[in-house]
Amino acid sequence: MAVGVFDSGLGGLTVLDAVSKRLPDVPFVYLGDNKHAPYGVRDADDVYTLTCAATERLWDAGCDLVILACNTASAAALRRMQESWIPREKRVLGVFVPLIEALTERQWGDNSPPREVAVQHVALFATPATVRSRAFQRELAFRAIGVDVEAQACGGLVDAIEEGDMILAEALVRSHVDALKRKMPTPQAAILGCTHYPLMQEIFQDALGPEVAVYSQANLVAESLADYLVRHPNMMGQGEASMFLTTGDAKRVSDHATQFLRRRIQFEAA
Length: 270
What we know:
Keywords: Cell shape, Cell wall biogenesis/degradation, Isomerase, Peptidoglycan synthesis. By secondary structure, the chain is an alpha/beta fold. It folds into 2 domains: 3-94 and 218-269, 3-Layer(aba) Sandwich (Rossmann fold), CATH 3.40.50.1860; 97-215, Rossmann fold. 44% of the residues lie in helices and 17% in strands. It has helices spanning 13-22, 44-60, 71-76, 78-84, 96-103, 128-133, 135-141, 157-162, 166-183, 201-208, 218-231, 250-261, and strands at 3-7, 28-32, 65-68, 91-93, 115-116, 121-126, 144-145, 148-153, 189-193, 213-215, 243-246, 268-269. It has a 6-stranded parallel sheet with strand order 4-3-1-2-11-12, sandwiched between helices. Strand 11 (243-246), helix 12 and strand 12 (268-269) form a beta-alpha-beta unit. Helix 1 (13-22) packs across helix 11 (218-231). The protein is globular, with a radius of gyration of 18 Å.
């Protein structure tokens, strides 16, 4: 009955933490492709190939349902995977849609035509690959009209967070917010479009100002997954044990993950 959670590195642990608290009886298998991280600087074909390989590894671990807790993978690979690669008995879900549903105040499964919504000026902070894909804007256009999205590629931020250099990470956040506000001086909402960024949410909020609503994904994805499993209980795979897998050096990744979540995390080789 295990569910897979995939990220290119450690950022998806923010999603794993939220879904584990929301669904404490569900075993989760987490896979970090730390050997090839970060994905945000790779091209779309590379991201697709790596994401498919990681998804297959989670299927082998007994996870028929896999959550791409990686915005770059969700943006650059998911649609292509769903259209031509995923077998009928498996499911792979991304992290964009729950966020956009919250932003546009839609319930899951509301497929009515796009309509005007309260928020009209949105700042998107994401990796370069996610920004290039325009996947957020595409998904948003299915649900809302008249929303101006200004995207800011946050180069270097994932690396700083993964290395635990929070002084550099804070400096980068403030620099990227300044760059965004030169293009969009008064955003109404800001999307943290990378699962690493919730660790810097307070800094984003401080740099943007209290009048800007800041959306991050972990809790929204957790609620969406809980709802999905109620409607699709058959998608619980045959896996029985929670585990942490990595394509990188297991000891080094375990040490960084422990620092990342502030509790002991033990990875093993994928």
